[in-house]
Design a protein that fits this description.
The protein is of the alpha/beta class. It has a single domain, classed as Rossmann fold. Strands 1-3-4-2-5-6-7 form a 7-stranded mixed sheet, sandwiched between helices. Helix 4 links the parallel strand 6 and strand 7. The protein is globular, with a radius of gyration of 15 Å.
Length: about 190
């Protein structure tokens, strides 16, 4: 299925699991740490400058945001692991994420974002283990690759694949700045929604 990524528009934002819309279309979900660049990656994928709100303050996505694109829903889940919010708010985000994944929805693909510049973080390991244990189809988007040289990107990707215990084929090296890997990620999303 060839998705026209340029047709994307913001659908709605939901702060409680009870308010989520019924699952009527394929869904592609985005998860990752608060400062991993989820909004920037979504904007790159969807050919838009500011569809998903980008902030210099991590942790701005406090709700589940739905974007509609050519009959597919792109679901931006709250970032996890950000310390500068209250424990209550962090717990609310965690509950939103786990409740979303426990629903009976069309999980065509989960895009798990990981900052390529760092070794595997415990929360990322937990998320990928959870996705694998639940049998959810996922791909890892390694973000901020423009900050590393090409050879360093390849080394770090191989290292992260080992640390996460996943096949390197599950990873896409990306950069919202340079556009690296964006077409490949679009291809993977299109295949998953076919």
């Amino acid at each position: 299925m060839a998705i026209n990524f340029s047709t994307a528009h913001f659908e709605a934002s939901f702060g409680t699991i009870e308010s989520l819309p019924a699952p009527t279309t394929p869904e592609v979900s985005f998860v990752g740490r608060s400062n991993v660049g989820k909004s920037s990656l979504l904007n790159s994928l969807l050919n838009r400058k500011s569809l998903a709100k980008v902030s210099s303050t991590p942790g701005k996505t406090a709700n589940i945001n739905f974007f509609s694109c050519d009959g597919i829903r792109f679901v931006d889940l709250p970032g996890y692991g950000f310390a500068k919010v209250s424990a209550t708010e962090r717990q609310r985000w965690a509950d939103l994420i786990s409740s979303y994944f426990s629903q009976d929805r069309s999980f065509n693909l989960v895009v798990a974002l990981v900052d390529i510049r760092h070794d595997a973080q415990a929360l990322d390991v937990q998320m990928l283990t959870y996705l694998a244990d639940e049998g959810l189809p996922f791909v890892v988007a390694l973000t901020k690759a423009d900050k590393l040289s090409r050879s360093m990107q390849a080394r770090q990707a191989a290292s992260l694949a080992r640390q996460f215990g996943i096949d390197a084929e599950r990873m896409v090296i990306t950069s919202s700045e340079s556009g690296l890997g964006i077409d490949e990620l679009r291809r993977r999303i299109s295949e998953a929604c076919d």
